[in-house]
Amino acid sequence: MKAARIVLEYLKRSGVKHIFGIPAGSVNAFFDEMNEMPEITPIVTKHEGAASYMAAAYAKYTNQISVCIGSSGPGGTNLVTGAANAMREHLPILFITGAVPVTTIGLNASQELDAQPIFQPITKYSVTVMESKNVLEEVVKAVEIAISGVPGPVHIALPIDVQHKQVEAAAIPAAAKRNPIIPDLNVIKETAKELVTREHGYIFAGQGIRNSVEHLQELAEMLNWPIITTPQAKGYIPEDYPLLAGVFGFAGHESASNLINEGDGKVLLVVGSSLGETATNNYNANLTKDRFMVQMDFDHTVFNRKYKVDLPVLGDINLSLLFLIEELRALGLTRKAVKRAAEVKSDAAGDGQEYNTKNVLLNIQKYLPVSTRYTVDIGEFMSYVIQYMKVVDTDSYNINVHFGAMGSGIGSAIGSQLAEPERPVVCITGDGCFFMHGMEILTAKEYHLPILFIVMNNARLGMVYHGHALQFNRTHPSFEQEGINISAMAAAMNIPSFRVTELRDITQDMIDNLLNGNSPAVLEVALVDNNVPPMGDRVKFLSSFGK
């Protein structure tokens, strides 16, 4: 069989059901072979960048290897942003790029590019395979690297002729399995003693808690400590959970900020957060000031980056929490009924009648299914989502403040829907994001994915506009854009759509009509909101560089 086919056979055995990307001459062997492999569906996108974010969400919500493919040259470089994002998010993605024939390397062949060194710093492994006999071995190696230890992306470049060459039949290896990182029991015992001795503190939860929410809640109830989440962890702890104190960091809540800046907690127990800029409100020193700091993570490189860690706990989060709970039980602690630690307070309140971003989002959410997952794009609306939208079900928000590109939420919605077809998915995006990757609504249509795309259309780059207005007291005229009727664009593609121009346009019947079908729909919100977005201290941080 062809080398490309043996790769696909291994991926099939590894549970791969979709491959995201765009066909082209330098990767045509893969797409041709998929004609004979109904178990794997190629998701042909409109842009490789969108494909990479689809693959990221798919990896995240299936908890398995995801595959993304691009042609040599520009197709491959279009995947670079997604690879960097996957590295940041610890997502196991196999990026395959085509390459010119081995015999033409160095001869300025069409779309020739040495992709290996480009992907090297943003993946766990990057290699160009020059001989067909080595292809399967290298793919197996790459996948094992991707899922092992701290998961992350890997990259393999395959010249056209290498893909097409016949290889000897070989036994297809079993799917790679990840071995958990087991925490040191002595460190767990020491942690338990410190927490009991110091009694009062806060749990600071990042997105690493995603598969460990029940354990985290049990720990919080044993300690009777409030849980503060990062923006990326919004959606993991239900809003009505008594010990939830809100979001700290970018667009965070006043209640959480008060605890960090003025609270008397003597311990900060960080669980699954790398304590980056957006999670810490621009590296706020009050997080650890006069506090004993414990940090739990499966990535040792996050320890002592910006904040001194008194007690690092290395291991998979679910195991570290489970072991810690057992040690606390041994010390006499039990799970107990708890009272609300603090009312989650937003920075601003509206009367509910003004046609503004906050009221629009809350009114739309009121009419959507409780189980909806929201994939949130990059724009001023993101701060409103973090600050105001409700958490009514588990794992209900996909927010990528770390490395989300404009338009990434659109691809994430498609990846999420493919990963969990039974769960309703709503993408909250903006006109600027839509103009980058909005044509992926056609991808959703072609694969019959019932995603609702909410497009906040203010005819400007909203976050840029408000950021400049606050930082420099002026904005450049180019930030304003010509107003475009996006719902009409959707209608031209035979995609159901509706255009909201006032708050009373949002009704249950309207939402139900858009959700009633086996295809995507577009809900455009035409709204210029001149209220200052609840971005927290982000503007202060940026302003410090202009003085």
Key descriptive features of the protein:
alpha/beta; six-stranded parallel β-sheet; 35% helix; 18 strands
Choose one word for the global shape: globular
Instruction: Report the major sheet.
Output: 6 strands, parallel
Strand order of the largest sheet: 2-1-3-4-6-5
User: Spans of 5+ residues with little confidence (pLDDT < 50)?
Assistant: none
Structural class comes to: alpha/beta
How many helices? The count is 21
Average pLDDT confidence is 92
End-to-end C-alpha gap:
64 Å
- The total count of strands amounts to 18
If you compute it from the alpha carbons, what radius of gyration comes out, rounded to the nearest whole angstrom?
24 Å
Any chance you could write out the topology, listing elements then pairs?
Elements: H1 3-13, E1 18-21, H2 28-33, E2 41-44, H3 48-62, E3 66-70, H4 74-77, H5 80-89, E4 93-99, H6 116-119, E5 125-128, H7 135-147, E6 154-159, H8 160-164, H9 185-198, E7 201-205, H10 213-223, E8 227-229, E9 244-247, H11 254-262, E10 267-271, E11 292-297, E12 311-314, H12 317-330, H13 357-366, E13 373-376, H14 380-388, E14 397-399, H15 408-419, E15 425-430, H16 431-437, H17 440-446, E16 452-457, H18 462-472, H19 486-492, E17 497-500, H20 508-515, E18 521-526, H21 538-543
Parallel strand pairs: 1-2, 1-3, 3-4, 4-6, 5-6, 7-8, 7-10, 8-9, 10-11, 11-12, 13-14, 13-15, 15-16, 16-18, 17-18
Helix pairs in contact: 1-7, 3-5, 3-15, 9-12, 10-12, 13-14
At a glance:
It is built from 21 helices and 18 strands.
